[in-house]
Structure formats: structure tokens, C-alpha cells
Amino acid sequence: MSKKVLLTFAGNTDPTRGQHDGPIIHICRYYKPEKIYLILTKEMEERDEAPYNIYEKAIKENLKDYNPEIIRIKTGIKDAHHFDVYFDTIYQTFEKIKKEEKDAEVYLNMTSGTSQITTNLLMYYIDSVDLKLIPIQVETFTGQSNKTEADNKTVDKYYAVEEEAICNLDNEENSKKRIVVPDLKKYSRILTKNQIEKLLEQYKYEAISELLKRDIFDKNLELNTLVNFAIERTNLKGLECNKKLNSLNNKDYNRLYHFTKDKNVTRIPSWYQIVDCFALANIKQKAEDISSYTLMLEPIIVKLYLSILKDIMKKNLDELFRKDSHGYKIELKRLEEDLKEMIKEDLKREYLKDDVYISAQTLASTIKYYLKKKKN
User: Fold this and answer.
1) Residue 255 within a domain
2) Is 219 contained in some domain?
3) Which of 235, 306, 330, 353 has its CA 20 to 30 A from that of 287?
4) Number of domains in the chain
């Protein structure tokens, strides 16, 4: 079972408010996180200074037999109403959690603190991909905002922990649970959807795959499967790509399969493989990936020349060259002496290397040799 961690600021509604739990205690009541990262502004530091420690003592007084580890993060922040003063603290705290609490469920208190604090947490939540974050909102016991003067009394370090716990109605059996888990992913969906659309136009499937790790879409698994299929297609994995789509069992995707659903690679004609290479080269060109586009030209030409030798000149490629899992190789003992001489002449070499993969230049010389031989 995953470890539970709570990341929370302390606010004016903590530890308790109006004879009820404040957000921190209420979250602890129902989730019992083993560790609490308690972030304190300068004002809250003064309320929580030793030996008073009102937040920790209130948690343990209201929730008997619950003894979480509390990590206090004293920020020294005085201007709590400024948006940008929280970035470093929130970022560094999450980095600390990543190192110390790998794979933990991290609950975010989205209620305690100023609107600037909760907005900062929301922005981090939207952009996060490597933590299991669960936003938690705690409603007031009236279901309304804290507006009454009696309920808005601000606590200080002299907060009467034991007396307030006795008066806390949430400690009674059958008290109302006020936890809400808001669907904050809807904000992330809008941003991510726009990013994915732009990346699709550029054929940047790997980048899309990284965005989908946020797991924010209803059909996230299906989308991920389609993107992984596209990645393998652009890596010319051939029939191996089809395995990605088989699990979806969706007829709408039949036209996306590599050539056919046939599992026999030998049944895929060479012309289709050539078209596949051309399609990939076209993608590289549209994506302005000039270096990859240039590198794509060689395998396309090789496949064209092999097709000419096999399909037009009716040569048995397996007799002419030696084949392994990556392609055809030159085996000098299979080549006619005159052919070897022509290849050396065309390549301007004194000798040929054995057991090397064939190049477009080698195949061009081979085609020229058999055309010349046919005329004679």
C-alpha cells in the first residue's frame, strides 16, 4: 500500500474553526497521512513557535492514537498576499518529497491559506507528471464560506488546544465528512490538449507520450496506445507495430495497421516497405528535421535498388547477398569477379570489405553490371 503524505500550508481556519475541524485536522482525520509537510509563513511560524506548537498538538489532541511525522518548513514569508513569493518553497518541497517519498500518495490541502497559496498549488498540480498528487478541499460545516464574526476569530500561539478539542463537534461519532476531491484536471486537460494538437502537427509523438503520462484524459490508455503505435511506425518497426493496436479491438483503427493484420513479415511486399520509408521521410521533411531527412534517403534508395534487382531483373537476392535480421550484407565469395571489379572501380577502391551491409552505391554498381551483361 502506498505511503500517504500531506502537503499543507497553515491558514486562519486551522487548527479548528467554529467548534469544528480546520482543513488540516479534517484531512488527517479521514486520510491519516504518515507524514505531514507543514509549510508556514512568517505569521504562522510565530503562532506555531515552541513550546506552543499549536498545529501539531491540536492534531494529536483531536485525533487520539494518531502520531504523524511533521516536517515544518519555515519560509519566513511576510507578504503572504503576493503570488510569486511561494514558487521556490513549493518547488523545493515537492523536490524533497520526490527524493524521500517515492511512489507516495501526496495529498494537497487546497483549502488552508490565502488564494495566492492555493493558486500556486493548483499551477504545480496542473504541470506535474512525476508525483501522484491528490487535491483535497474541505468544506465548512455550514457549506458556506467563513463569514460570521464568531467563526472568524484568528488564533494565536496561546490557542487552547485541549479546551478547543473538547468543544470540537467533529470528534463526535457520526459527524459529517466534509472532504471534497475536486476535478482540477479539467484545467490541465485544456492546456495539454492544445499542446498535443501542436505536437501532432509536428509529428512529435515522443513528446506527446510524455504529456500523456499525466493520465488526465478519460481515454488516456487508448490515446497512449495510439501514440506508441505511431512512435513504432516512425521507427519502421513493421509488423511489430500492430501488436500495439490489437489490444484495442477497435474496427475504426483497422486502416492504421501496418499493411495488414497479417503476422507474417514475409508477406509484406517490398513496395510497401519503400512507401513506408517515403512516408517517414515526408514526416521528417515536414518536421524540418533536415539531418534525419537526409539520413532517410540512403535506406529508401537501398530499398528501391533491391526492388529493381528482385522484381524487375528477377535476381535472387538471397543468392546474391547474405541476409541477417538487419538486412543484406556483401559476401565476397558470392560475387562474380567482374562484378567485384566494377564495384571497386565505381567506389574508387583498391579492395572490397567482406561482411559489410550493402550500400546504395554498391547496389547501383550491381544493377549496372547486370544491365551491361544482359546487353552483351
Assistant:
1) yes
2) yes
3) 306
4) 3
